[in-house]
Amino acid sequence: MTDPMILSGPANDTDSLRQTLIAGSLQVQQQIIPQLADLGNEGLSVLMEFLLKRRDNPATWIDGKAYQVLYNSDALPAKEFLLSCFPEGIVPLKSECGINYNPLQQLLAAQDFQAADRVTIQKMCELAGPTAVQRKWLYFTEVENAPAVDLQTINYLWLVHSEGKFGFSVQREIWLSLGKNWDSFWPKIGWKNGNNWTRYPNGFTWDLSAPRGHLPLSNQLRGVRVFASLLSHPAWAKSATN
């Protein structure tokens, strides 16, 4: 399949939504995408067209929302379109270490944030090597030595598939805005309430109603020093998604 089939939508509603999706603000686009999803194949065709026109530019979380609708659809044209045009997903899966981030992209596209969080720490351990994979957690020195490209890929996946709410760079932005004050940071991202730490897993919020920066759960990397190393990593100085 060389050119994906974009189904024409004769309905005025579809044409109006198409124009609004192209020209609207982020907030308007965010509202339009679910409306298109409810229109069946005609709405899906608009989302295919939208993604195809934007394919040469870096994906944003709006692209992520459109992609997620197609990814989670049972419609054959949507499946064929994604296979043809986005076989790896909406985010390029770059890695200096040959690590496969496709499982993480699939879980995030499906909005399975809890499973994606578990895979994130697994991939972080893979970056550090077999010993870290076996122990299932990281030393701060291993975080410091993690390749910037890989950390950017993980972060970019979280950003694009969470409406820009989740990711290391979001956590870093909040941390810096609070003067690197951990006591202020933990409750801000929903990891602590008063003197009580949020209990894993049921205390955490595994959907987009969570506070900004709530995920991924880098507290599982063990200790403030490890998390500080992650948020201070040179990857964020180089990252266009920061």
UniProtKB/TrEMBL annotation:
Q: Lineage of the native species?
A: Bacteria, Bacillati, Cyanobacteriota, Cyanophyceae, Nostocales
**Which named protein is this?**
GUN4 domain-containing protein
GO MF, one term, reads: tetrapyrrole binding
Stretches assigned to the GUN4 N-terminal ARM-like repeat domain: 5-87
Q: Sorted alphabetically, which SUPFAM superfamilies does this protein's record hold?
A: ARM repeat, GUN4-like
Listed GO CC annotations = outer membrane-bounded periplasmic space
InterPro entries for this protein: ARM-type_fold (IPR016024), GUN4-like (IPR008629), GUN4-like_sf (IPR037215), GUN4_N (IPR032192)
Q: Which Pfam families did the record assign?
A: GUN4, GUN4_N
Q: Which family does it belong to?
A: Belongs to the CpcE/RpcE/PecE family.
> Where is each GUN4-like domain found?
95-234
